[in-house]
Amino acid sequence: MHNLSIFGTSSDAGKSTITFVVAKLLQDLGYRVVPFKAQNVSNNAVACADGREIAVAQYFQAEVLGLTPMYQMNPVLLKSGRKSSAALIVNGQVVETKDVRAYYRDIDRLKPIVNEAYRYLDARYDCVIAEGAGSPVELNLMDKDLSNIHIATEFQTKIILVADIEKGGVFASIWGVYNLLPQALRERVIGVVVNKFRGDRSLFDEGVRIIEQEFGIPVLGVLPYAPFNLGFEDSQSLINYQQKSQAGAKRIGVIAYPTMSNYNDFEPLIADEGVMVEFVRENISLKAFDLVILPGSKLVIEDLSWLKSTGLFAQLQSHKGEILGICGGFEMMFRQIVDLEGVESESPARVAGLGFVDDEIIFRQEKVVRRGHYKLFGREVEGFEIHHGWSKRYPLYYEKEKIRGTFVHGLFNDETFRDYKEQAVDAFVAQMKEYLDMERILQALR
Length: 446
Fold this sequence. Notes:
- It contains 15 helices and 24 strands.
- The strands form six sheets. The chain has a six-stranded parallel beta sheet, sandwiched between helices. It has a six-stranded mixed beta sheet with strand order 15-13-16-18-24-23. It has a four-stranded mixed beta sheet with strand order 3-6-7-8.
- By secondary structure, it is α/β, with parallel strands linked by helices.
- It has two domains: 4-230 and 421-445, P-loop containing nucleotide triphosphate hydrolases (Rossmann fold, 3-Layer(aba) Sandwich), CATH 3.40.50.300; 243-413, Rossmann fold (3-Layer(aba) Sandwich).
């Protein structure tokens, strides 16, 4: 069976979603299928059972398929760093922080690592579905493109294009990407999926005819726009989510600082009709919220500075209601943050925190990455940790009156949410199945 690449004709076209949908439908037909993304750029990562970290999208795709998430599914991960730098995570472990230009200059060193991970999966599964990244035809970067061009060329995968019709310009994006691909890759394109269509599907019948007859590209499906509040990967996910809340729902404000991370911590809250979640991006009054959450942060000191400049820092210090800090947000609650090793700062730094917790956070180069079962706030939580900060007095969590904080992600996951998640995925995949030509896809992969 051929392996498959999922290319987007633009960023946020829906590659991650189409990857798990096609993978699940192939699995339902009896094939052993595994997700893969050579390189992801995301501040949202999850710890695997072996203490490695991968992007949340690949972790979620593995969960959908009932697979154990592993670093081979996402061998290269970039997380935003100071200025133009990024933290480079290879095979689930932090290697170094690199300037983006240096990263691209050294890209060839990563190709053998990516190839090894791909081959590991290929040897164990019938079909590897390799999710691309951004657009595959950024002409100035095509020789440095690990996720699209390199994988499709090196392993001769079949290719599906995914086009976002909601953005507009869908014909130009399909025509442009297809015709800018190298000839060898154009020959392996099996078709295009038009994604996020709103309204009467028959209104696009002429569009399908144009793509198939005039462009010469098979249309494998025109998928309806359907909100899916799971697997949050980036800030766009937070813009697109939809929530149903009952009258009198508990109001929760999540402080959305510039490098907020691990948005998926809040998926259980968004799924709960007894809760109304609002992401706070400016200095609005916090008095109306029953609970204020300080979420994870990729750059804690930078986001703490943002809190101070907006006025939210002062509001939080005088707030009378409940406040919960998670990971980076927990670190901000301490008396002081000390970064003598330059984990986040260019020079040794000591920064005043909110002062809720009577200890200091010490940043260490060595990163804590682990998954497990934790006893927190009177209950057991299955979660994970990813952090550089360390506290001598409160190594895991803090609780006093209306102030709580913890390094552990996954705090709101419970059996009810896990059941909801499984049902939501099954319903979403079943809906998309109605519009996807899986027979045509399967025939091309055989």
